[in-house]
Structure formats: C-alpha cells, structure tokens
Amino acid sequence: MALFPFCKASSGPIRVSRIQLVLCCFLLSLIIYYLHGSRAAARVHPAHPIFHPLEMDRGRKVTDMEVHKGAESQTPAETPWGAPLVWGDSRHSASCRAKFAQREMRIGLLAFVVGTYAQFIRRFLYSAETYFLPGQVVTYYILTDNPRSLDPPVKLGPEREMKVVPIAELPGWERLAHRRMTLLGDAIRKSIDSETDYIFCADVDQEFVAPVRAEILGDLVATLHPELYGMPRNAFPYEDDEGSSAYVEEDEGDFYYTSEFYGGAVSEMYKLALACSLLILQDHADGITARGLEESYLNRYLIDHRPTCVLSPEYSWWDSDLSAQVPVHRLLSLGRQCQ
Ligand SMILES: CC(=O)N[C@H]1[C@@H](OP(=O)(O)OP(=O)(O)OC[C@H]2O[C@@H](n3ccc(=O)[nH]c3=O)[C@H](O)[C@@H]2O)O[C@H](CO)[C@H](O)[C@@H]1O
Ligand SMILES: [Mn+2]
C-alpha cells in the first residue's frame, strides 16, 4: 500500500511503473516461495495410523513439529511433577545406576509372542541379552501360543533365565489389545510377583540397540511416545469419546505415553494391569473401543497415577518424520517404522 505514494513522490510516471514492477515481482516470488514451502511441508505424512482418527490438518501438524524441533536439543531432567525424565547418558542416570549397583534386584522382561510375531522373538531376545540390564538378574517371561517357536532356545548369559508361559490366544493386534492387561495381571499374580522386584512389558517387535540399564527402574515407569513428545497437548490422541472409560478431558494429561515399553515395581504393575483390564472390560461391555485400544487405557491410567519415572523417547523410538530427535536410540520399534 505504501509503495505507490513512495514511487509517485520520488519519480515520474514511467520510472514509477518500473520500480513498481520490480517490487511486485519480488513480492510475487516471495509469495510463490512461501506457498511452495507450505505445500512441501504438507506432503509429510504422519507415519502412524493413529494420526488418521485425529483428522488433523497435516500442515498444522508439521508446524507443531517444527516448533518442537527447535526445542529438541533440550533434554529436561524432570517432569512438571518432579519425577525424573530419563536420558541414559545424563548425570542423573549415572547416579541412579550407582545407587542401584548397591542393591540386589531381580528384573523381569515380559513379551507376548502370538501367531506371526514369533518372527521377532530371537532378535528381541538377543538384543536384550546384549543391552537390557546387562550384568543383572533378568528373567524373560514369554507369553506365547506356541512355545516351540523358541526352539532351539536362545543361549542366555549368567544370571539370566527364560520362562515360557503358554497362553491360548488367537493372533491379531485388536484382539490381543483386549487381552494383554488381563494376561499380564494373571502372570504377575501366578509367578512374577514372587520371582522379581521389577517387571517391564515390551512389544516383541522391538530391538534394543544401546544400553538400557538401572536408570529405568522406578515404581511406575512409562515411556514418552517419540512422535508426540514435544507436541502440543491438542495433538495427543487421547480417547475423546465421553462414553469410554479411557476418556480424557481437554484439560487433563501431561504427556502421551507409548504402550511399547512400560514397567515398574511388581506391586504397582499389578495394580496397573488390574485397573486397565477393568477399564477395557467395562468398554467391551458397553460396546465401545477406544481409538488407541490398550494405549488409550494405559494413558488414562497414567493420568490418574502419574509415573514416578518417565523414560525419554530414547527408550521407544522409530524411524518416522514425526519422531523426536534424541541423543541416543536405545529401543527401536520395528513394527511402527515408516513403511
Ligand atoms: C496404538 C498404536 O499405535 N497401535 C498400532 C500399532 O500397535 P502396536 O505397536 O501397539 O502393536 P503390535 O502390533 O506391535 O502389537 C503389540 C504386541 O502384541 C503382541 N502381538 C500382537 C499381535 C499379534 O498377532 N501377536 C502378538 O504377539 C506382540 O508382542 C506385539 O509386539 O501397530 C499395529 C500394527 O502392528 C496397529 O497399526 C496399531 O493401530
Ligand atoms: Mn509394536
């Protein structure tokens, strides 16, 4: 708007239109550059189906991501409620490891292996042998419909053993999502309770790629979802159906946690498994399915019972345009990677 008065005052009619032309071209190229940039950004696909029910504007999503990328170098040591936020190479993690080194602990790592997921078990176990609590007393609890898929047995290190728990379950992610919490509670009550101090649940379609040590130990431990870490609260795919027992109000929720890796003291994990299986049963009776299935109930529970230890996305990472950049990848999800 101010261009024309400026041009008119400084020169005659012919000169004015040339300057106008140059300035207009410059403005036009700026606009084209900007539009092209936004379109390129909008082409970035959310990597996971969980984003589809969100019906989010992808352009907006990417803008949020860029906001996050700016803050990426930050590795906060604490959550707003004062729980440690764990980055494996931090000083806090080192002192945590030193503290636990004085104690004798038994740690369980539990995974479900049903149907075709048997293809992941060896890679999972071998990687856990190398990186999961090396040097500690570890028991693997493998809940499977096919114990023979573990033959020949994986050779384990000293102080490490495997317990195969047969379960009569049909494969399928949706079906198992309804059952895993109940089966976890049963397994804790039957044996894990008396055999370990801490129990961690991990999706078997994962691989440990760097050390995961005693810094992860706590009463109630949850892991930040790598694609949602640093995102604004309105990006979190909490359950939005008010009828669901996983429903989360707009003013609730600090972080969005992944269901790929969580754990804690055995007694706390039993409470979690029991409460989540009840929430799932209640929805089942009402004919409701939460959008993120098990992950939705887990997140609901973790709002009501804030974790005492929060693991950074170092402990749950997969290759996706939206995943937060972290100093070290420690646990990789093979199933959730970009196709
Ligand atoms: C909340 C979320 O993001 N969920 C998605 C993600 O789930 P998840 O990564 O949560 O599911 P997943 O398929 O890895 O299943 C969870 C775990 O259950 C066990 N398992 C599952 C199915 C089965 O037939 N046998 C078996 O043993 C196995 O340990 C597996 O690692 O990926 C799934 C496809 O893989 C679906 O796209 C889900 O929408
Ligand atoms: Mn998985």
Describe what you observe in this structure.
By secondary structure, this protein is α/β, with parallel strands linked by helices. The protein has two domains: 1-43, no CATH class; 65-333, Spore Coat Polysaccharide Biosynthesis Protein SpsA, Chain A. Helices cover 38% and strands 16% of the residues. The chain has eight helices and ten strands. It has helices at 3-10, 13-42, 58-71, 91-101, 121-131, 173-195, 266-285, 294-304; strands spanning 85-86, 106-113, 137-144, 160-166, 198-202, 206-208, 220-224, 257-265, 309-311, 331-333. The strands form two sheets. An eight-stranded mixed β-sheet has the order 1-9-7-8-5-2-3-4, with helices on both faces. Strands 6-10 form a two-stranded antiparallel sheet. Helix 5 (121-131) links the parallel strand 2 and strand 3. The radius of gyration is 25 Å and the shape is globular. 36% of the residues are buried. Residues 48-50, 111-115, 117, 171-173, 176, 203-205, 259-260, 292, 295, 335-336 line the site of uridine-diphosphate-N-acetylgalactosamine.
